[in-house]
Amino acid sequence: MGRIKAVLFDIDGTLLTEMPPLIQLFLPQVYEKLAKKLETTKEEARNVFLSEIFSRRDTYDWHDWNFFFELFGLNMQYEDLLKRYPHKLHVYPDTIPTLEWLKESGYRLGVVTSGPEYQRLKLKLTGGLEGYFDVIVTREDVKAIKPEPKIFLYALEKLGVEPKEAAFVGGDSLSQDVYGGAKHVGMLSIWINREGEPGHHLADYEIRTLHELRKILGGVVE
């Protein structure tokens, strides 16, 4: 492994999670509004809504709740939900200590997310996580989502490092974050498998907590 100078992260499932607290809070509201609009039961509205979401899995649209709210003509904005219920966002207990250690050790830090601009709002609402990062790249910056190379390359250019000098840590999609994304462009790929799912040996490293980054990355960056 070459000398790593920068570490980039996914957001959801890696640094923080909105599931289940926030999701369980607003989805019933969605089903109720949609049931009235479609003049049907909440159960049928739920089936219609979730079917539409899963039919677009891993597409550009799939990463944006607002797309689906607008698709069904619901008067909702995800930004409003985040601002109303910031306490429903859960920052993993290993996130801040790890970011502190990485910053103190001299690593440049970044975020690469397939989500829209409200991903920045999540980082802001969760105790100012955005302050730890030298660059935050959402799909809006490059009109692309992972695993498209240009979203990773854009972040690396902003950080001023080559792919071989950077590691990417992702948790919720092996295909987007690890095998098809970071590894494909030449970055060190690290899969944080918080739930202990069956391993697929696609990443360069598999970890259960962010604390394990210390033994992978080593000491201080010169």
Describe the structure.
The protein is an alpha/beta fold and 222 residues long. It is built from 10 helices and 8 strands. The chain has helices spanning 21-38, 42-55, 65-71, 78-84, 95-104, 118-125, 139-142, 149-159, 174-185, 213-217, and strands at residues 6-9, 16-17, 90-91, 108-112, 135-137, 166-170, 188-192, 205-207. The strands form 2 sheets. A 6-stranded parallel beta sheet has the order 5-4-1-6-7-8, with helices on both faces. Helix 1 (21-38) crosses helix 2 and helix 4 (78-84) packs parallel to helix 6. The longest helix is centred in the N-terminal third of the chain and has 18 residues, at 21-38. The protein is elongated. The relative contact order is 0.17.
Q: Give the averaged pLDDT, no decimals.
A: 92
Reading side by side through the largest sheet, how are the strands ordered?
A: 5-4-1-6-7-8
Please tally the β strands and state the result. 8
Give the helix tally. Answer: 10
What quaternary form is this? single chain
Structural class: alpha/beta
Q: β content, as a range?
A: 5-15%
Low-confidence stretches: none
What is Rg? 18 Å
**Residues in helix, %:** 40-55%
Distance between the termini: 16 Å
State the order of secondary-structure elements, H for helix, E for strand: EEHHHHEHEHEHHEHEEH
What is the makeup of the main sheet? Answer: 6 strands, parallel
Shape label: elongated
